[in-house]
């Protein structure tokens, strides 16, 4: 089975979960249970659900726009920013409103340039969530969910996010991008709450930290992103953060969004400012007030400069002027590419793919199994131990899920490894650095199949030796067996007539 075959249909793991859910549905004691199981059945056939969460004004909506490559999510303080809003792939442009009670309905909307959604006479307090369907390739494999800011003075806004991601029921999201600015106790408590269930407790695998508005951390200077990178490394080394999200990636979402949607007229306006030799661009863009001063005698008027500042931010304006002046960006397309490249969004996409979408089947399966586990523990269900036993058999028999559990234990220090090198190799072979064969084996992408097979066999022998060594602690022996199983999967995927290729073990 090829990677494309896997992408077009459910994996064996999701098929097994689907059979279990169908059996549970047939035994469900009430309509409420049937509805919950039907949601889980739909969920395993849908794209991965990734929520974007963080404190108020952390830049969640801007980051979502950057990931989609379009200005969809409103970034002002309007009513829609107070609502949980799903952005999913659709064949048509459409917005649906789902109230806390009663049927959903389609909403009118317009672009200006972000979406302005007409909620009609329905108060925001009575709305459960909105669903925006948009025909874009960026949403074909993932559904992004924008959430209200936590830590708000409005307890209702924060409660909506906690209800969606971190209440007593299994989360409606499979994974989360959590935006940090300055590490706050609220951030740690939220991530702990998101992981507070039997299947994902303490795991950093399905959470990615984003050091948002990273340019501001570096004072909007031209070297701001390098400074933000050093801060992200410190956060990533923080023991509290390591147990909740493995990676912290610095990103300036506004710069990425501007780069992806840069217009020709905006480039010409910036180039005109650079061409006016009466002004020193470093001095002109020293502060936002100076750049927008109405009495500055520039050919580009005040209103236009204000628009550029709103679109690019102070860091984006400084960087754009510098790139144009140094002739590193001679056209709108070149400038757009440079802004995107320097925003950090590409690095976030790589982590997103390696850690989340690369293991989407396992994450979706865990979410559905967590929902079923919570359901069958309700008093109305009979034979709870039977259903929990079937869940456990899938969990322990699916190597994709075993890898996630072992990575989590490894990253929180629960596996007694010999040293950092052994830990790093174990994490890499389990897919911690990427799901493809090259990433798992630590080989360059041009490595041949023979080179990959040789490396996998060497690793397999090494980890079998660890698993069988009498002095290896019990937890390490168990972990080493799982790593050896991952090596076997790589070897099998390289065999001409071997077993079916497992998702993520392709090139």
Written overview of the protein:
The chain is α/β, with parallel strands linked by helices. It has helices spanning 3-8, 12-27, 31-44, 60-68, 155-165, 185-194, 214-217, 224-237, 239-242, 253-260, 264-275, 281-284, 288-292, 302-325, 332-343, 345-356, 360-376, 384-397, 399-411, 420-429, 437-441, 449-468, 474-494, and strands at 48-54, 85-89, 94-99, 105-106, 109-111, 115-117, 127-134, 142-146, 175-180, 207-211, 248-250. The strands form two sheets. It has a nine-stranded mixed beta sheet with strand order 4-3-7-2-8-1-9-10-11, sandwiched between helices. Strand 5 (109-111) and strand 6 form a beta hairpin. Helix 2 runs antiparallel to helix 18. The protein is globular and about 75 Å long.
CATH architecture of one domain: 3-Layer(aba) Sandwich
Broad shape: globular
Q: Helical residue percent?
A: 40-55%
Distance between the termini: 14 Å
Rounded average pLDDT: 85
- The count of strands amounts to 11
The radius of gyration is: 25 Å
User: How many strands, what sense, and barrel or not for the largest sheet?
Assistant: 9 strands, mixed
CATH superfamily of one domain: P-loop containing nucleotide triphosphate hydrolases
Strand order of the largest sheet: 4-3-7-2-8-1-9-10-11
Q: Can you tell me the CATH class of one domain?
A: Alpha Beta
In terms of structural class, how would the helical and strand content be classed?
A: alpha/beta
The DSSP helix count reads 23
CATH topological fold name of one domain:
Rossmann fold
Question: Proportion of β residues?
Answer: 5-15%
Sequence stretches where pLDDT stays below 50 over 5 or more residues: 1-10, 196-202, 496-507
């Amino acid at each position: 089975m090829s990677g494309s075959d896997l992408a077009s249909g459910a994996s064996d793991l999701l098929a097994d979960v689907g059979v279990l859910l169908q059996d549970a549905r047939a035994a469900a004691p009430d309509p409420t249970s049937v509805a919950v199981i039907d949601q889980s059945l739909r969920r395993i056939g849908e794209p991965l659900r990734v929520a974007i969460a963080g404190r108020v004004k952390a830049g969640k909506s801007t980051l979502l726009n950057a990931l989609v490559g379009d200005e969809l999510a409103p970034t002002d303080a309007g009513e829609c920013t107070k609502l949980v809003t799903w952005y999913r792939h659709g064949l048509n442009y459409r917005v649906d409103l789902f109230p806390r009670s009663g049927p959903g309905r389609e909403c009118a909307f317009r672009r200006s340039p972000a979406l302005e959604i007409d909620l009609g006479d329905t108060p925001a307090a009575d709305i459960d969530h909105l669903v925006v369907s948009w025909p874009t390739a960026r949403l074909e494999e993932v559904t992004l969910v924008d959430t209200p800011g936590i830590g708000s003075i409005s307890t209702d806004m924060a409660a909506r996010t906690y209800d969606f991601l971190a209440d007593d029921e299994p989360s409606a999201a499979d994974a989360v991008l959590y935006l940090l600015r300055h590490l706050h106790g609220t951030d740690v408590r939220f991530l702990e709450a998101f992981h507070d269930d039997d299947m994902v407790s303490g795991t950093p695998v399905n959470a990615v930290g984003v050091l948002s508005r990273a340019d501001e951390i570096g004072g909007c200077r031209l070297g701001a992103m390098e400074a933000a990178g050093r801060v992200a490394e410190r956060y990533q080394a923080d023991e509290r953060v390591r147990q909740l999200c493995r990676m912290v990636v610095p990103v300036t979402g506004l710069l990425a969004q501007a780069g992806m949607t840069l217009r020709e007229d905006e480039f010409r306006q910036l180039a005109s400012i650079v061409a006016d030799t009466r002004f020193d661009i470093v001095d002109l863009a020293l502060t936002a007030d100076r750049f927008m001063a109405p009495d500055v005698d520039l050919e580009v008027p005040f209103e236009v400069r204000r628009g550029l500042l709103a679109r690019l931010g102070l860091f984006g304006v400084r960087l754009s002027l510098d790139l144009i002046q140094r002739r590193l960006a001679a056209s709108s397309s070149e400038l757009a590419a440079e802004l995107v490249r320097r925003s950090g969004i590409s690095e976030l996409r790589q982590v997103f793919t390696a850690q989340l979408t690369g293991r989407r089947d396992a994450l979706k399966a865990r979410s559905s199994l967590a929902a079923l586990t919570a359901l069958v523990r309700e008093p109305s269900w009979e034979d709870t131990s039977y259903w929990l036993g079937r869940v456990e058999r899938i969990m322990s028999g699916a190597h994709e899920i075993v890898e996630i559990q072992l990575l989590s234990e490894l990253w929180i220090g629960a596996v007694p490894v010999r040293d950092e090198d052994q830990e790093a190799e174990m994490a890499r072979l389990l897919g911690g650095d990427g799901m493809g064969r090259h990433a798992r084996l630590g080989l360059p992408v041009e490595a041949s199949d023979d080179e990959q097979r040789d490396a996998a066999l060497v690793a397999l022998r090494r980890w079998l030796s660890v698993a069988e060594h009498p002095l290896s602690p019990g937890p390490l022996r168990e972990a080493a067996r799982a790593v050896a199983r991952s090596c076997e999967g790589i070897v099998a995927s390289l065999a001409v007539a071997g077993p079916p290729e497992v998702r993520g073990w392709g090139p």
